[in-house]
């Protein structure tokens, strides 16, 4: 197991920012860290980075207590922070050297990443002369330049246009293929669904849902059944006290499992209502999120 958080607690005065948080993340996998504002995500990340000391609990990496000096971590913070008056290449070199790279490999990596992110022309500019999106790219390079084994990306897509968001998606996928372990904190559920096989949904400092996304969805307790709204179907559902939502030509019914769906099909059949089409889907992460954190 790459990363293990064991019974983590962190309070600020009377505020319990993180409470009894336990989770595991296998090497080379991606964890989606979710939660509303103030749920405890940043506090958790800061404890992993060694910027905050847990009040209780332990953080382990590859079976040992995580020692920040021995594990290379790339962190893209939510609040971006470049040195505005400093040249792009100078500050990237500074970040690379802080992570232990020698000057020659740092220079090589800077050219490689600027080229890859299609901004080599900004190498000698001051950060303040770059657009917000391009500053974000520089910050991403600072995160990746030392080829870290653990990547922590806090809202990495914010401020990127669709083309740059696609570019970032491709880079994250590449890091995953290289077997890097990744924590992705985002409020955008579709991004979490795209990248993360593991999720941890936090509320008031605690994990309210945690584990493999496929298993969470499978065991969540209902499926979304979509039925063509044939004439007479709504009346029958009302008569049988089956609650539904109307969406265009469809009726959406929440069912517990396959057998509840089959029971409903049987009743429709017995009531001489044709089944023109139907579709049954697991709940989306967005639905689960809204239900759990509301
Ligand atoms: N340094 C601090 N001093 C006092 N309270 C803090 C401090 N840092 C965080 N908190 C509180 O701890 C709780 C968790 O905050 P945290 O920043 O971890 O949430 P978050 O999930 O990252 O939120 P967001 O999505 O808004 O970034 C909040 O109630 C916050 O106000």
UniProtKB/TrEMBL annotation:
PROSITE patterns the UniProt entry points to: ABC_TRANSPORTER_1 (PS00211), ABC_TRANSPORTER_2 (PS50893)
Pfam families (alphabetical): ABC_tran, DrrA1-3_C
Top-level division of the source organism's lineage: Bacteria
Residue span, ABC transporter domain: 3-229
UniProt-listed InterPro entries: AAA+_ATPase, ABC_transporter-like_ATP-bd, ABC_transporter-like_CS, ABC_transporter_ATP-binding, DrrA1/2-like_C, P-loop_NTPase
Entries under SMART domains matching the protein: AAA
Protein name, as recorded: ATP-binding cassette domain-containing protein
Organism (species): Fictibacillus terranigra
